[in-house]
Amino acid sequence: MKKMTGMILAAALFLAGCTQNTAVAAETEVPENDTVIWIASDLHYFSSSLTDHGSLFTEMTEQADGKNTQYIEEIADAFLAEAEKAKPDALILSGDITFNGEKQSHIDLAEKLQKLQDMGIAVLVIPGNHDIANGYARNYFDSRSEWVDSVSSEEFADIYKNLGRKDAVSADPNSYSYLYDVNDQISVLFLDANTEENPGLISEQTMAWAQEQLARCNAEGKTVFSVTHQNVMTQNMMIADGYVIKNQTSVKLMLMEHGVTLNMSGHIHAQHYAYNARFYDIASGSLAIAPHQYGVLTVDADSNATYQTQRTDVSEWAQNHGLGDAFADFAEESQDFFDANSRRKSEEYVASLPLSDTEKQSMVD
Fold first, then answer.
1. In 3D, which of 103, 201, 108 has the Cα closest to residue 152?
2. What DSSP assignment string belongs to 11-56?
3. What is the pLDDT of residues 348-360, one digit of tens each?
4. Which three-class secondary structure state does DSSP give residue 3?
5. How far apart are CA 142 and CA 57, in angstroms?
6. pLDDT (tens digit, 9 = 90+) per residue, 136-190?
7. What pTM was estimated for this model as a whole?
8. What sections of the chain are H helices per DSSP?
9. Where would a tag sit more exposed on the chain, N or C end, judged by fewer CB atoms within 10 A?
């Protein structure tokens, strides 16, 4: 297998989830022989048919974790429009592609993604912990909420059956894991840790299947990147339990033994990367949360890889669709929404601590 001989990480952009000052990555001319892969995570798409954006829906979004669910339709459409214009070689959605696994959300999103697939852009998805057999799938109308259908693993596979996985080199019979050849040089190994039987874990059967695929890629001299939803490496000790794959050590060793030096994940809703012993795990921030960014992985003919983040420009999309006035300040307003949500959560956390009001306010700030 070709080693990834170099990786230039746009480190200044990794912190975009924590600052308002990071600029949108400038469009650059990509050499003809370079491979470009877009990676987005945690879109949490919610079908517009499941809500009237009434009082209960508004309350739910304002009391949640900062996802801009009230505008997720526009965010998704703006992101996909950018992909349609840029035409990357592949577009990866690394799990939690729906809000809480609503069947209608899956159906509507698959229809949007199919349009890109029909244009020749390989759309590659993997389920997250929110996407399958989710007991929180609900609709929101006025002041009431009702349970709606979620999907089984089989239904998930059926809904997305016409996307990239159908062209996989190999598909694991025990999960939604698969190996996809982007081209003769690059393969992507998708590892599903969100089956109904083994949530949060890459099963022994899937590990055995993956090792066979990696060995074949080794023999063919392929460069392989892997994709998971949960992290392979701990990104932060404060968000480790439940956020990393349960058998993370075994997964990491398997990948490294076969020359894989980059895994792309999500799940933590923050743009970050962990690095150890020549192995990277890049966690993409949630596309639903300000600054609504995704990753752009560019690989040259020598398998040198660069990664940078790009922000979805919802305002430009809105302007092109006659909605400019309503979304003119979307980036700023979305960041304000996230900041207000973070402040509320911080205030709730420190409220019971044995500290003075001044100390609590300082901690919140």
1. 103
2. HHHHGGGG-S-PPPPPP-PPPTT-EEEEEEB---B--GGGB---HH
3. 999 999 999 999 9
4. coil
5. 7
6. 999 999 999 999 999 999 999 999 999 989 999 999 999 999 999 999 999 999 9
7. 0.91
8. 11-14, 55-62, 72-86, 103-118, 153-159, 204-220, 248-257, 314-320, 330-350, 357-364
9. C
